[in-house]
Design brief:
Layout: E1 13-26, E2 37-44, E3 49-54, E4 59-60, E5 71-77, E6 89-91, E7 94-97, E8 103-108, E9 120-122, E10 129-132, E11 146-151, E12 160-162, E13 166-169
Parallel strand pairs: 3-6, 4-7, 9-12, 10-13
Antiparallel strand pairs: 1-2, 1-5, 2-3, 5-7, 8-11, 11-13
Length: about 170
Amino acid sequence: MDYRFERPERSHYLSVSGRIKSIEPVGYGSQQAYGCMMLMGVEGEGETYVNFMVTPTTFVLDYVELLVGMNATFYYRADAPAPLIFPPQFSAVVIVPEQEGRFVYVGNFDEELISADVSLQLEMEDTVQVVTTNNQKFLGNPVNKDLVVSYTNSTRSIPAKTTPDKIVVLCQNM
């Protein structure tokens, strides 16, 4: 008998949840870019403080305006370069404002629609809204793509199974 087990991949994304403490406009390279990017200071659990660079390509779920005092989860690429400074600073890829009763997973899903870390499996139905980051209907197949999956309930199995409320395909990360 073969008792080898495949180790699940780690997610391509890491996250920090917390309260937005500051929002400052920043420029990059020229005055023309000033105001198009923001540096957001986020205070997480245990009084940790992290800065996130928010660019025009950062996807904000529900397209809401981010304000000081809001709670949100900031997702960033696990393999992205980051400066060795304190507080740490990362480029936000996805920002999810906190909403009671909503769960969100950001990551890649295989051909069986199981997440890379084997924690979530999607059950697709015709009612599932699949869109791009500019809120247009996604006409392709979500397999092997980075997705933002919003759902309200799941099974307690491993992987947990859910029928998502909405899926956003992160086309800019392809």
